[in-house]
Amino acid sequence: MNYAASPMLVLRLPLWRSRLLLVLIAGGFIVLAGRAVYLQGWNNDFLQQKGESRYSRVLEISANRGRITDRHGEALAISTPVKSVWAIPEEVQFSSQQRAKLAALLELPPQEIDKRLNEATSFVYIKRQIPPEVAERVSELHIPGLFQNREYRRYYPGGEVMSHVLGFTGADDAGQEGIELAFQATLAGKSGSRRVIRDRMGQIVEDMESIREAQNGRDLSLALDAKLQNLAFSQLKLAVEINKAKAGAIVVLDARTGEVLALANLPTYNPNNRSRLSGAQLRNRVITDTFEPGSTLKPFTVALAIERGKVAPETMIATAPGSMSIGKATIHDAHTFGDMSVAQVIQRSSNVGAARIALSLPAEAMWGMFDQVGFGSLPRLGFPGEVSGKLRAHKTWRPIEQATMAYGHGISVSLLQLARAYTIFAREGELMPLSLLRVDAPLAGKQVISPDTARKLRAMLESAVELGGTAPKARVMGYRVAGKTGTAHKEENGAYAAHKYVSSFVGLAPVSDPRLVIAVMLDEPSAGQYYGGAVAAPVFSAVMGGALRMLGVPPDAPLKPLDLPPDGSEIREDV
Amino acid sequence: MARINLILLLVLTACSLGLVTSQHQARKLFAELEREQERAKQFDVEWGQLQLEQSTWAMHARVEKIARERLRMSVPDARRTQVVVPGASAAEDRGGRR
Fold first, then answer.
1. B82 touches A at CB < 8 Å
2. How far is CA A556 from CA A19, A252, A473, A512, A516, in A?
3. What is the pLDDT of residues B15-73, one digit of tens each?
4. Do the bridges between strand A413-414 and strand A339-341 make them parallel or antiparallel, or are there none, so unpaired?
5. Best residue of B37, B45, B52, B82 to probe chain A, by most A CBs closer than 10 Å
6. Of A79, A84, A163, A295, which one is the catalytic site residue?
7. Residue B58 lies in a domain
8. Which of A304, A309, A351, B79 has the most Cβ atoms closer than 10 angstroms to its Cβ?
């Protein structure tokens, strides 16, 4: 076909029309190209973001809370994932049959589920922290509007035995008491997140970026020895039951390293089931309660007097007639012995003797001694609720107060402070810093008294547990032990209560090379006996004997059966 | 000229197909890695639960109770034990431990 011959082409149109069309189309293309360059070159963030959001997802990476173990690596607290069931009440639809099944699985009454669902419209927890197996069966019910999320729950296999040391965590896995709170920063994990590409099957096919690294909490290795802790707890429990005491506390220290090997309190609670808790159960009496220690403080006054050369263990002190007046007040002894040596003042726990020794010393020096062994200042364990006790400035002391302080009245300390102070007798005069965590290289102690004085005091404290002392029941077969009883009236509303006592015993063993310091305290023993030598000393003996055997400490005394005096015949200290 | 272009086109096609396959392989492997990591996490959780179970069963209070009540065991009296000091002859030893 000859196009050129087409009659259409014969028609001559003005040339500008085709030119105009060309310019318009070219202009349109330029605008499009400009826009494309703008969107893909200069201002591409928005589109890229939109595109990414179609295929990329931000995933949460959960982090575990660190485990707590005892010194031998035995697990004491572990977090494990559990599920929580929650609902959007507006969207929940289930048959009464499904409701009954759900209630049975969650161990809730069906009415309780209805009540929860009526509480809110947008979000409500049905049940938190259920085991994963149960959660699986709940999801098999396929109830619309019912969802689950992953949480962590902390379990404490030790239960009530360890509860006061470990404390516990709340529902959000944050520490609320004890070690869990004290070392929250170490134990807590930091959850992270990352951006990934998912395919249509929901599988992750590519890692795009890590927004935040997840950091697992660090594991903690405590100084505690689970076996020893159990021994201490069970013996304390036995003693609290026998003596019908209101409360009790015990702490076991390693004299070589200052580690807290066991620490138990009664009454206690089960950290795995805390539905009914009272303040009394939660209280960690060893660390957060103070009491007037009574005669357990006498050795410090005597140590100071020996250190300053005022007396020697053989120096005779007149205690007749068994009482002594200072100003308007009178100090009494339970037994009258006439003159006795300084060693016997400790052995028989004479108040008059201790007071006489105290009055020969300047108040400032006595205050200095108490201050140096840590009374009146925090033990710095890092434990929540630590107390410093009460030690008044020496300038405010009256002579009667100085005398009574010599035998532990008018001053208050915690059981932990008391046990720590006794490390100076166990360690040739050195006061050890304490630790709740396992110590691999022991820290240096602080020299408070000379090694010679410490050895003299140890000998005196050993005589206190012999026949003729205040605590023959504290002895342990096969080991030489040393220690001191304490019995004090309880202070109530600013006055001493007549028939309420705090009985205590602090001691160390073996005397030839002290390894352990144990302090025991029983609050208001009310089964007749209340002297420290009758109530607290047997606990000390049982725990010390068992602990030394567990630690494999070689005996330093002949293995003869101990002859105990008949009940009630031992020398009693004064209260 | 046309032949070179044709060869280049073939090479290009082969390269593109190679890229697609390797990308696919990479994604498959990555998905597998993810699955294994998930499994590792699962095992970690299981390990924690087993540790928990072990400590619960091995609680000293429980062990002691079973030893005393069911097996009728008791801690030997210090009089019934003999200490063996390393390096010393057994006949000389008196005393006890364990």
1. no
2. 119, 20, 18, 7, 14
3. 999 999 998 898 888 888 888 988 998 898 888 888 888 888 888 888 888 999 999 99
4. unpaired
5. B52
6. A295
7. yes
8. A351
Q: Which chain A positions have a beta carbon within 8 Å of B27's beta carbon?
A: 199, 205-206
Q: Where are the alpha helices (DSSP H) in A308-414?
A: 342-348, 351-359, 363-372, 399-406
Select A60-221's CATH number: 3.40.50.620, 3.90.1310.10, 3.30.200.20, 3.40.50.2000. Answer: 3.90.1310.10
Query: Which residue in B51, B75, B94 has the most chain A C-beta atoms within 10 A of its own C-beta, making it the best mutation to test that interface?
Result: B51
DSSP state for residue A476 in the 8-state scheme: B
Determine the structural domain holding residue B64 and report its residue range.
2-74
Domain A226-551: which CATH class? alpha beta
Q: pLDDT value at position A7?
A: 66
- State how many domains chain B has: 1
Contact B97 A158 (CB under 8 A): no
Any domain includes B96 = no
Q: Which amino acid does the sequence have at B30?
A: F
What is the residue extent of each domain of chain A? 60-221, 226-551
Residue A295 known to be catalytic: yes
Model confidence pTM above 0.95: no
In B, minimum Cα distance to A207 occurs at B30
Other beta carbons less than 10 A from residue A381's beta carbon: 18
Question: Does residue B14 lie in a domain region?
Answer: yes
Q: How many CB atoms lie within 10 A of CB A301?
A: 26
Q: How far apart are CA A164 and CA A16, in angstroms?
A: 98
Q: What is the pLDDT of residue A507?
A: 94
Which residues lie closer than 8 Å to A32 by C-beta, 6 or more apart? none
Convert the pLDDT of each residue in A252-289 to its tens digit.
Answer: 999 999 999 999 998 888 888 877 777 788 888 888 88
**What pLDDT shows up at residue B91?**
44
CB A574 within 8 A of CB A334: yes
Contacts of A439 (CB under 8 A, 6+ apart): A223, A257, A258, A259
Residue of A nearest to B29 (CA): A205
Q: Is there a domain that residue B90 lies in?
A: no
More confident residue, A468 or A485: A485
A533's enclosing H/E stretch is helix A532-535
How many Cβ atoms from other residues are within 10 Å of residue A423's Cβ? 27
Which of B27, B54, B97 minimises the CB distance to A555?
B97
* Residues A428-448: tens digit of each pLDDT: 889 999 998 998 888 888 899
Q: How far apart (Å, rounded) are the C-alpha atoms in residues A547 and A553?
A: 9
Identify whether the C-beta of residue A346 lies closer than 8 Å to the C-beta of residue A471: no
Considering just the CA atoms, what is the radius of gyration of chain A in Å? 37
- How far apart are the C-alpha atoms of A91 and A80, rounded to whole Å? 30
Q: What is the mean pLDDT of residues A308-322?
A: 83
Distance from CA of B16 to the nearest CA of A (A): 20
The Cα–Cα gap between A315 and A466 comes to: 20
